[in-house]
Structure formats: C-alpha cells, structure tokens
C-alpha cells in the first residue's frame, strides 16, 4: 500500500459507505447491514481495475456519529480522522433521503480543519435510485459543496461518472520527488530546428545539429532548471512523409516518438519560418490535437526572414491562421533557436500553458456559471427546440474535457458547442487550451454495470 494514493470513504453511520466500498471493489469485504455502526475499523484494499488509470488504496471508515462515546469509540474516531488527514481524495457519503445535523457538522469540519480544508472532497449523495430523485438535490446544493454527485451504491447508478471523477482527482501517475515539474516535447518536420532549440535551452550541445534532414533519429531528452523549476525537454525524431508509395504519416522512430508525446505535458510544434505552414505541418498539428495535449506553435528561424517590418509578424500570423483557422485559439510565437531570440519567452509561455492545463474547475463553479450565463438566452432563441444543459462537470485535464448532461445531444450542433466552449474559455481563463465538451443525454449511462 505504501506510495499509492489513498481514497477514503467517510460519512455518518448507515449512509451506505460499506455498500459503496464493496461496489467499487466488486467484492464483499465490509459487513453491510442496516444496523448502525457495523463497520468498526478502517478497512483498506488496493484497487487495480481497468476503469482506473492508476492503482490506489481504498479505505472504508466507520460511521463517525457515535452518540455514546466510550474509550474504544473515541480511539476509533481518532484513527478515522487521522486517516482522513492522510488521504488524497475523500468520498463523503450523504443519505439523499436523510440529511442530518452530523452531515452539516462534517461538511463544516472539511472547510475549517487546518489539514482537511486542503483535501479534495467529492460528496456523494447516495440512495438516489430514480430519475426523480436527481431533480430533488436543491437542499444539498445549498450546503455550498464544490463537488457533488448523486449516486446509488446499491444500484450502481452514475458509477461511470463516479469512476471518471476519481480518475480526474487522482494523479496520472505516482509522482516521485526527482520527477520534473513539466515535460516538454519538441516536434516538427526534419530540419525545422528542434535540436538547435534543445541545445539552446540546455546551454550546451546535447543533440546533433545539421542541415541534413532526419539527423535526430531517436528521441533525445534532458533536464534543466527554469525559474526554480525542473523541466524535462524531449527532442523527438523528425516526423516525415512516407515514400510516394505510402498512404499516411509516419513517425521516424515511430514508437519512441509517440511515447514521448504521450509522456509530454506540453508540446511545442516547430515550424520553419522560411517554408511557412504547409499541409504536412497541418497534419502534424492534427496528430497532436487528437492527443489533447496543450500545444504552442513556434515559428523558428525568424531571423532569416528578409525585410522584416514592425507588422511583419502580424501579417505572417494572419497568413498562418487563414490556412488553419484554429490557430487563432492557440499560442503562436516567433523565435530563432540559433540566435537565442525569444527562446526565454517560449519557455515562459510553456510553463504558463502547463499551469493553466492543471486547473480543476469545481462542479459548483461550472454550474454557477451555467445558471447565470447570459449566452444561454441567445442559444435558446436560435433554436425551435431549445438545447438545455442540466449539469456540467470537468472529467479530465489532458485533454481538458468538460461533460455536459443535456436534454438531447442532437440539439447541440458544432456552432452552438463552439459558443459554449469559447464562453467557458473566457470565463475561466483557459485561453490557449484545447477545451473539449463531451455531450451526454441526461439519462444515458445512469444504471451501472457489473
């Protein structure tokens, strides 16, 4: 168990904690009866299942609302709270049909305790067994909870979304102290200047630099410090076309390059300023876009562009955006890796984009925005049958994905989705990120599967 993230289930007695514990484990580990206080110890099991991106330790705590506290009960409560303070994610279970004084007390404790106030708490409204129950959550929203999800532990209702949220709140991998703050992959066509940029960042010649395309045959990486943060930069093998008999893109040293992109937190797509944005660059852009990685497009060799004027970069950007309109929503920068011009600014932009991509928007903030957003009136007026978003929640960071539960997915064509997405980007300061919106009909996937 040592080193694994800890997910702890907590709540008062008889709210369904052990039923939830067993449902996630798919095993009968805890005693489940209607008698309050059946679970008397902190039960722990390692969860390794395909639904979860990393293994974690799942803990089931005893009910904390013990009325007649004796010496043994006090020790049980102390151990349970100590366990909570060492958890990475807390699943707070409340009974939908029975909200009590101790529920309020526990919520208040999560907000005020010096340690617990910094913990991620996902409140699960249990025993929501019907669609009608989901319409009756107003008393819980009034509690000021940031993350709230209606479920049925017994019927596995909304378990797909529960698993998505657990994945969202847990790290992608177990981070070690020696791991870099951010991993950056440099990608582009052969001879676009990737190795020169790597060498500039490192301050010495780490990768071979040549005018011969394809000099870098494998992914080369190294670490360095920037603004007191350890960064790792990866110079990937140049992407090239297949031979004329080929049918698609190929990656030179394909598997290693794909692995590098998969490991990267931010991707820098390097474009040769003298050649401009070609069809092949657009295809590379599409490959990175499909992975959902935060990306900066850097136009290298800007020093070689002749007869530059004060507005030359603006005109150059306009031509690029005319060829690929989505570039209007992505960071663009000109630089010279060889002359070390604006390479520092590129690193600043990379770190800023990475930090932006690590944002976790609370479900409360998203739904507060939805309820007050003036744009929904424009959307509804533009349709004979108005599209409606009932509930929104963020489910991943890379890609930065927000899930909309809606009345009918068919009522959300690309122009309306784009309107929602641009409004979210503006409201939450996500400019530069590829924000995705996934639509789900309100009743889709409510009942869980074994």
TrEMBL record:
The keyword Nucleotide-binding applies. It comes from Leptospira perdikensis. InterPro entries: G_ENGA, GTP-bd, GTPase_Der, KH_dom-like, KH_dom-like_a/b, P-loop_NTPase, Small_GTP-bd. GTPase that plays an essential role in the late steps of ribosome biogenesis. GO terms for biological process: ribosome biogenesis. GTP 1 binds at residues 11-18, 60-64, 126-129. This is GTPase Der. GO terms for molecular function: GTP binding; ribosome binding. It comes from the Bacteria. Belongs to the TRAFAC class TrmE-Era-EngA-EngB-Septin-like GTPase superfamily. EngA (Der) GTPase family. Gene3D superfamilies: 3.30.300.20, P-loop containing nucleotide triphosphate hydrolases. Residues 182-358 form the EngA-type G domain. Keywords: GTP-binding, Nucleotide-binding, Repeat, Ribosome biogenesis. Associates with the 50S ribosomal subunit. GTP 2 binds at residues 188-195, 235-239, 300-303.
